[in-house]
Amino acid sequence: MDERDDYSAIRDKDLKNKALSLGIRDDEVIATILLHDVCEDCGEKGGRRPGIS
Question: Which of 3, 13, 18, 39 has CB atoms 3.0–4.6 Å from 44's, for a disulfide?
Fold first, then answer.
C-alpha cells in the first residue's frame, strides 16, 4: 500500500463515519461509500459490471 492508498482508506472511513453520524444506516449506502472508488484504484476502465446495477 502506498501513501495515497493509506489516505484513501482513511478518507473512506471518514465518509462512512460522517454518514453514520447523519443517521444513514442503509447497508447498501454504507457499502457504496466504502467501495466507491475500488475500480479506479484497481485500474478498471469504467463501464457496468455484470451483476452490478
Answer: 39
